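$ fold --in a.seq
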Amino acid sequence: MITQKFLKLKKYLFLISILFLFTSLFHLIYIFLYTDAKTIPVKWGTISEWLIWNFPSLNPLKNLSWNNQYVIWLLYRSLLKYDLEEDKIVWDIANCDISTLVNIECYINDDAKWSNWEKITAEDIYSTYELIKSTNSNIILTSLLEGTKIEYKDNMIAFKNNKQDINFLNVFFQPILSKKTIDSLSKENIFWNFPTTDLVYSWNFKISNVSSDLTLWVSKIILDKNEYYGNWNISKVIINVFPNINTFLKNKQSVNVFNDDDNIIWESVPRLQSNKYTLPQFVWLFINQNKVTNLELRNYIFNKINSENLIELLWKDNFNIVNNPYIWETKIEKEPNIKNFESIMKSLGYTKKSKKIEDLIPEKEIPKVEEVKEETKNTTEIKDEDLDIAKFQKESEIIVKPTYVEKYNFVTKEDILLEWVSTSEVEEIYINDYKLSDYKKWDTSFFYRLKTSNWNFKEWRNNYKIYFVIWWKKVFKEEINFLLNTNKEILNSQEKAFVKDLYLADLEAKAKQEEQAKEEQAKKENEEKKEITNINQEEFEKVNKLDENIYYDKDLTPFTLRLYYLNTEKALDDTANFIKNSLKELWIEIELVPFDLNNVAKVLANKDDYDMILTWVNLWYFDFNIFPYFHSSQSKNWYNFGNVKKTSLDILLEDLKSNILSDEKIKENQIKILEILKEEQVIKTLYTPKINLLVDKNLKNKEMYESLPNKYLRSYILNSSYIKEDKIINFENKSIVNFFKFILKKLYE
C-alpha cells in the first residue's frame, strides 16, 4: 500500500516537474523574444477632461471664454499655428509669403482637408473672413481686418491692406469654417445658437455628441478622432463641464486632465501629476502721466510696491515675478533722486496736519540773539594712550581663520585666505558688490582670498563690507579693514597716523552730536514760546480735525489716487488691495475702482478718470510687439494706459511693429525701449501666472513644457500621449543559436 502511494506521488512530482520545465522554457523564450522589442503606442483609449463654469459655445467665430477656445482648437485648423517642438510660428493650412505685410499671398497645402475628406478650399478661407468682417462677430479680428481686401483664385488666397503691422498676422490664427457650414448659418447661429453637431472639422477631433446628465449636473462634449487628420494616439476625448466647484469635487476621482489654476484639487488626487507652465500674459500697473506728472512721485510709488511680498501673498508657487515687459532680469525701476518724500508732496501743494497748524499759529517775537562765534582751535592734547588701536578694535563675528582678524588689521602678507561662517538661512553672500559664486545655501562656511595679484588686495587701506541675503533681503553684516604694507617699519608708522585719524574723527562725531542736541533743545524751547493769537479759530478747528497721516492741499482736500483695476479674478482683487496697503506707508490714500471686461471701452474713453490702472496684458504670439501699450498714437481711446508720448520710443515701437526683423535687431530695439521706460516710470510689471495642469500619471509619453504662447494650447502636453502600448519583436536576431547564447549569458550574469 505504501509502495502504491509512493509511486503515485512520484508520478505527480514528475508531471509537476515537466510542467515547471515547460513553463520556465516558455518564460525564457518570451524574455528572449521581447528583450529588444520596440514599444509603439496603440491608437486607442479615452481620456476625460474636466472644465468648470462656462459651457463652451463651440463657436469658432467669437472670441469667447478660454474653455471655448480650448475646445475649438481641438476641432479646427487655421492658416497659422504654433509649433511647440520647434518653438516658433509655422504655416498650417497654407504656405504664405510674409516678406511684405501689405500683400500676403497664401497657397493651400495638399493635406488641408475636412473630416469628410473634402479638400479645404480658398473659398472656405475667404468665406470665413468675410463673415467676420460683415457681422463684427469678433471685434478684435474685425479691427485688424478693417481696410483689408481679400481675393482668391484656384488654390491661392491673398490679403491686401495698407497696414504694415506685424499684429495683422494674428488674423491667421482664426479657425477656418467650410463654406457649406457658413451658408447654413443664420444670424442667430452666428451670435448665439451655434450648431454643435453635423459639421465638418479639420483638426484632431470632431464632435460626435453633446449631452447633459441631469443626475450629476454635468454637460458632456464627446469628441471622436478625426480619422483623416488626427495625429493623437487618444481615440476619444470626453469633456465634462460642471456648473460649479462643489459638483466638480464630488466627481474629482474620475478626472484625467484638469486645468487647476485655483488649486482646487491639487495634491488631493495622487493619480494626477502637476505640470506648471507660464504664458505671455502679465499683470501690469500703469501710472497715468497726465494725472501723476511728478516723476519722483512715480518713482516712490513703484519702489514702495514690493513684488516679492506680493507673490508671497498671492501664492508663490503660482506666479513668477516680471521685471519688465520682456521678462528679462533687467529691472526698469530706479531709486528716487529726492530722498525726502515730504518735500515732493510740498512741491505739489500738499502738507500734513502738523505743518498746517504751524502755518496758522504765528510765533511771538523773540529778541534775536547774535551768535558769538569763537575761533575753535585744535588745542586738544593728544596723548599716547589716546592712540591705542584697542579702543577702536572689534573682533570679527563671522571670520574664524585667520584668528587675528578684527575690524582694523595691519598686515604685511600679500596673500590671505579668509574663512567665514554662516547659517542655513543665508541664501547669498556679497563682499562689497562682489557676489560669492561658489557659495550655496546651507553651506556653513565659505572662503574669500585676498591677494594682490587678484586685484582685490592693494597696498595701504582695503575696506570690505560683508552682506548676507536672507529671505531675499540684503543685510549688512560686518565691515573689515586691512592695511597692507610689506615693509613692517613703514606699516608701524602708517598705523600711528591711521589711529590718529580715527581718534580725531571720533572727536568730531562727538562734537556734532553735542551741537545737534543743543539745536534740538533750542528748537523745543522756541516752540514752547509760540502763542495762539490773532488766528482764525474756525480754520484752526477744521485743521485740527484732520488725520495726521494724510497729505492735504490748501483747501484741505486729501491727496488721493484713483486706482482702476480689472476684477475678473481673485488674484487681481488681492493685488489691488496690496497696492493700496503698500502706499499707505507713504500716507497716500487709494480709491479702488473695479471694472470688468464689458467696461474696458468706457475706461479707455475716459482716461482722465484714473490715476493708475491695474490690468491683464496679453502679448500672445508676438510678445516683442508692445506697440499698443506705449505708442503715442494709442494714448487716446486705446491701450496706452499711461499716456506715454515719447518720439524716440515711438520710432522703436514702429520698427518692431511694421517690419519682419531679425532676432538680433528685435533684441537691440527691446534694450533701447527698456531704457526709455526706465526713465519715464509709467509702468511696473508685477507678475505672470503659472498655469497648473493636472494630468493622469497613467498617460504615457506626456510632453511637459515650461511655457506656452496661449492657454488653450495646453493640449500640446497630450499631443503624443497614449494609454495602451504594443511591442514589435525584432526577428532578425532571433535564432536557436542566439537563444542558447542568451541562456548562457543569463547563467553567467
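$ fold --in b.seq
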Amino acid sequence: MTVVPNIASERNVVVLKAKRHKIDTLDYSSGIQYEYPEISLSTDSTPLVKPTKESKHILILGGGVSGLLIAWMLLDEGYRVTIIADDWAWTKDFEKSRMASQVAGALWEFPPGGCGLTEIESPGKGWAAIEHYREWALQSYEFYEKYEQVFNTYERNGGSFGLKFTHLHQFFLDDLSQLKKDDPNYEEALKLQEIEKSPLKKDVKKYSRTTEAKKSEWNKQFDKVIEPSLNGQELKSAYSHRAPIVNTDKAMAYLMAVVTAKGASMETRKIESDIRHELGLQLLRDHGADAIVNATGLGAKTVAADDDVFPVRGAVRRVENTHKGSFRHLNDAYLVPAQKDSNHHPTKTVFIVPRNDDVLYVGSIVQPNISTKNLTPESPEVQMMWNRAGSFVKNLLHAGFVPQYEFAQGLRPFTKRNVKVRADEVATFPLIHNYGHGGSGWTLGVGTARCAVLILKKRLEGIPAAVINEEIYG
C-alpha cells in the first residue's frame, strides 16, 4: 500500500511505541515472543495516512468500543473501513437503552478485575492467558496516559473522550503482606506483586491496620469516607494507585465522531448467521473488501458459531456525586474485590466509581448466563448491592439518584476460553476475531485492538491463521 502521509500536529497524536511481548512463565510453552510495531492515533478529523486506490478495505462487525478502536487504528494507517452493526451508541437522551460499552463502569483495573466471577480462565495452550491480559491492559493504560496530554481537536470544539485519572483504592479482609500460598486470597497478594513490577509501581501506596501506627495512617487516609469493616468483618489491608476512568457515553460519541470524520462508512445491519463460510465471502464481495474483523461481543455466539460465548448480567446505581446534603463528594474510586471471607465463603464486590460528570457509579452485580435485562431498582439483588455499598461508604445512603437515569444494566460478553483476539482457522479468507472482554472492555480495549490489527496485517501478508495464533498464544 502506498503511504501518503497527512500533516498533523504532534500535539494531536498519541504514539504507542513498538514493544516486544515476551511470555516465559507458561508451563506448556518454551517461550512466547512477538513484536507490536509502533502505532499512532491522531485526534484530528483527517487520517494520518490518506487512503489511496491501493488501500485495503476492512469490514468491522460491531459498533462497540472494541470495533471502534480497531477502526480508528486502521483509518490512521490509510485503510478504508466499513463498520457494520445492528446497534450504535445512543447519547441524545435516556429513553433508549445503552449498549454494553456504555453501561460499563469503565474503571481501569490491573487484571484480573474484581468483579467476583472467575474472569480469566486457564484454558491452556493456544489461548489467551493472564500474561496477555496484563500486556493488553498496560497498553491501554499507556494510551490513556498519553491521550491525557494530547491537545484534543474534539474537546476544543465541545466534544470529549470523557477521560480522567483518579486514585483507585482496593480493600481486603486479609493483610496481603502475610498471605501464604495455601491462603484462599493468595492470588490477590500475587496480583499486588505484579502491579509493583509494572509501570504503576511509582504510584502504589500500601496500607494496613496491623499496628496502631498503621491504623493511624489508615484513618488519616480513609476515615472520612469509608467504614473499617464490611458485613461485620474487619478490613485489614489496602493499596492505591492511579487509574483511568472513562465516561462511556462521552467516549462512545467521541469514537463515533472520530472514525466518521476520518472516512469510515457505517451500515446498520444485523448479522444472524455464521460468517466463516459463504456469508463472509458474500460480505466481502458486496463491499469490495479484503478482510473482516469480528467485534460483535455476545453476537459472536451466532456470527462465529462460538458456543464458548455467554452473558454475565450486571447493573449499577447512578448517584448524584455532588456537594449537596450529608453525602461527601467523592473524587477517588473505591473497590472491595470479591474474595474469600474468614469462613472461606465468597464475598460480593463493592464498586464505587466517580465519573467526570458529577455521577457516581455504585455496583456491582455479577450474574452469569442470564440474558434478560429485567432488573429494576426494586429487585432484591439491586437492593442488596445498594445496602452493601451503603454500609461501606459513609452517608452514601443519603445521596440522591440521578434524575431520569438512576439505574443501568447490561450484559457483559464472556467466553469460556478468555478474550478471543485471534485469526480464524476455519474461514478461507482473512477473518480476525476480537470479542469476549467480559467486564474489561475499556481496560483491555486499546491493547486488544492493537493485537487484532497486528493479526490482520499478518493475515493480509498471507501468513496462515494457525501460525499466527501459535506465535501469540503458544
